[in-house]
Write a structure and sequence with these properties.
By secondary structure, this protein is an alpha+beta fold. The chain is built from 1 helix and 3 strands. The two termini are 18 Å apart.
Length: 78
């Protein structure tokens, strides 16, 4: 987690999420970074801005942390 966001509520910093591949995009604006992943290199794995939140991993396959993220998304009211 790169900073506080309502979708991270109840998720430990450093929680593990399921990735299928190693594709990633570096945002030009670092303030958009909501999470980073360190897997040989450090890269952006979630971005957030206003009412948008996008992840590069599969929350539906990420056990309790993923279910919490999805639950937070469903109840989020930006």
């Amino acid at each position: 987690q790169a900073g506080p966001h309502p979708l991270w509520n109840g998720i430990d910093d450093g929680a593990r999420f399921y990735f299928v591949h190693s594709y990633y995009v570096d945002p030009e604006d670092d303030s958009l970074t909501a999470a980073t992943t360190d897997y040989g290199i450090r890269y952006t794995s979630a971005i957030a801005r206003d009412n948008l939140f996008a992840v590069q991993f599969h929350p539906e396959k990420s056990a309790d942390a993923g279910l919490t993220l999805l639950r937070n998304f469903i109840t989020w009211n930006p």
